[in-house]
Amino acid sequence: MEDFNTFMTNPTPARPLLGLTVLAVEDSRFASEALRLICLKSGARIRRADCVASARRHLRVYRPSIAIIDLGLPDGSGLDLIRDLNRATPRVDVLLAISGDPHLAHAARSAGADRFVDKPLTSVAEFQNIILSHLPRERVPNGPRAVPKQDIKPDPIAYIDDLAHASDMLGDGMDRKSVAYVAQFLSGVARSADDNGLARASDLVLKTLSDGKSDRSCVSQLAGLMQDRMDDRKVV
User: Fold this and answer.
1) What is the reported pLDDT for 234?
2) Which of 77, 102, 110, 218 lies in the 20 to 30 Å Cα band around 85?
3) Where is the Response regulatory domain positioned along the sequence (predicted)?
């Protein structure tokens, strides 16, 4: 197995994660772009997998230093992948769960995650602090560290790409499980983009499904809000 940790580079105060590799298992392009920019500013290298199956293909080829796993993925739960990575030998140095649903924090830690991270993650300083606090002591750079103050703002085109992807999936023939996945996906993406209106509409669909109802009107409302945002982007 190829181990990218063999290509270690000495970290610097400005880029304390130089030499570390990240596998981000994330189905949202917008959230992935935020992670990519944060890793770039921190010195870490990153690869993305957009589902459990893709992540497992990556892991057959190389072992990352850090795995950041979204809990809601199109082909299964990120919790299963966290359990497997937690039991693997050698184990990744840092194993993080990330989600827009804080109620999943306990399940993530029980599965073996070192930490649960709330979406959205946009602070470079917060990301660095999380990683450095969980790295083995010998991997943490010595001396003072410059603490970056900026928040990351991904390209809004990535947000529109996510909406287009969700809109394509949200068809009339979808079963309840598929509708729940799309609504959960949109809820996390909307919060990452500070789109409170779309986040509320997504949460309404999730609540309707949780209550055992099948109200197509709230799904239609959600689809309409997505289309409005995509149309606005075309006008711009």
Assistant:
1) 59
2) 102
3) 21-134
